[in-house]
Amino acid sequence: MDTMIISVKAIEVLDSRGNPTVEVEVVLGDGSWGRAIVPSGVSTGTHEALELRDGDPQRYLGKGVTQAVNNVNTRIAEALVGMDAVEQMAIDMIMLALDGTPSKSVLGANAIMGTSLAVAKAAASAVGMPLYRYLGGTYAHTLPVPMMNILNGGLHTGWETTDAQEFMVMPLGAPSFAEGLRWGADIYHSLRNVINKKGYSGLIGDEGGYAPAVRTNEEAVEIILEAIEKAGYRPGEQVAIALDPAASEFYDEKEGIYFLRTENLKLSSQEMVGFWMDWIKKYPIVSIEDGLAQDDWEGWKLMTEVAGDRIQIVGDDLLVTNASRVKRAISEKACNSLLVKINQIGTLTEAMEAMTLCQHHGWTAVVSHRSGETEDATIADLAVAMNTGQIKTGAPARSDRVAKYNELLRIEAELGSTARYAGWNALKH
Q1: 428 in a labelled binding site
Q2: How far out from the chain centre does Cα 95 lie?
Q3: Is 309 annotated as contributing to ligand binding?
Q4: Given CA atoms 341, 342, 343, 349 in this order, what sign does their dihedral have?
């Protein structure tokens, strides 16, 4: 076994939106190799690490990533060739030092992340371990509850439907991941029938969920509840609802108000919290992600104060998988869960640091995809490695989403009798 890095190469490939992204391949001395592809978000947080794009309007409407690819093939490769791939933290620290900026704006977070993940995959291959075992050790055994985005809205649908961006189902009462996935697929197909019967179009959004032009935000929840029941499951007992309103997208920073277009409502921070509390009391909602804007810290603290003992309050744009922002949120009691997106921070080491911090303070963590995804299924392994018990990776549709679910099915089969499905325990914090 020779785990010395002998080659680091990147190319430009496409994501699920047809936009370019970075693919990195790392080869080791014994011939072992790892490959990773970087996803991309559309509703990105202000505090995320920088995704380096070329800006050349003659190529991919300015979204090309040749600069990031070149950074991998030159500066990053020169720094990493000859290093031992099992030294993940040291390798990630070298790339961070090489970039030298908090936002990864010199090399690009996409260049750094692709390399970081490819190194981990190569090392896992060399030592003969699946990635989840390599990263998580012998205690990596928990299969996550899928948080399935089956109805899309907000920015992901060009504001043609709801103001809230994602309406999700969680099969918490299932006995296994495989069954949970089946329940979710049943509900997804049932939802299409419900939508069609109501005379709405069955168009599909970025993450595979349906995007009917419903009249109100609340109607979206009611349609999903109907779909759950028609699929043969009990809402609130077997299947619960999770939301990602992506409130930063409908927050007017200048006026300091939240504007819900479908209801023509203008709400203060306190009123927005009250709006969600009404929903929590009315519907079987167990998790709300980004129910407030990314810098509305006072609103987040109020939400946690009034609802934190009832539901999971997940920070995405607020925290951007950044340990320093997680520390602040813990100190100020601004939420109780972290949405983990590796490309928000840029390295595997930093993402795992943020996740570990959450676990040490009794928070939950939800490993997540991005709206612009790829066939790369690394996040499935990461969810099991860290025993997070939750994964958010879209509807049970489109190969870029299903790739993660299929990988989890393989992992569950491989773990056999030692596999544990998180179920309702996933929400405990």
Answers
A1: no
A2: 23
A3: no
A4: positive
Tokens standing for residue 177:
């991941």
Does the annotation flag 156 for ligand binding? yes
Determine the pLDDT at residue 205. Answer: 80
Rounded Cα distance, 351 and 4, in Å = 24
Which H helix or E strand runs over 287? strand 285-289
Low-confidence stretches of the chain (pLDDT beneath 50) = none
Which residue has 């099992």 as its token pair?
86
Three-state SS at 5 = strand
User: How many CB atoms are located within 10 Å of the residue 255 CB?
Assistant: 10
Longest dimension (CA), the chain: 63
Strand order in the sheet with 148-152: 145-146, 390-392, 364-368, 337-340, 312-315, 285-289, 240-244, 166-170, 148-152
Whether 198 is catalytic is: no
What's the chain's average pLDDT? 96
pLDDT of residue 117: 98
Residue 12 annotated among the catalytic residues of the structure: no
Catalytic residue among 63, 104, 301, 341: 341
- Whose tokens are 């927050």? That residue is 251
Residue 166 marked as a ligand binder: yes
How is domain 137-427 classified at the CATH fold level?
TIM Barrel (3.20.20)
Residue 43's pLDDT is what? Answer: 59
The annotation status of 316 as a binding-site residue, yes or no, is yes
Q: 240 has which bridge partners?
A: 170
SS3 label, residue 131:
helix
Predicted confidence at residue 201, as pLDDT, reads: 83
**Residue 265 pairs with which residues in a beta bridge?**
260
Angle between helices 348-360 and 323-332 (to 10 degrees): 20
Residue type, 358: C
Q: Is 14 helix (H, G, I), strand (E, B) or coil?
A: strand
Question: Exactly one of 48, 207, 353, 412 is catalytic; which is it?
Answer: 207
Note the pLDDT of residue 47: 87
CATH number of 5-128: 3.30.390.10
Q: Is 392 annotated among the ligand-binding residues?
A: yes
Enumerate the domain spans of the chain. 5-128, 137-427
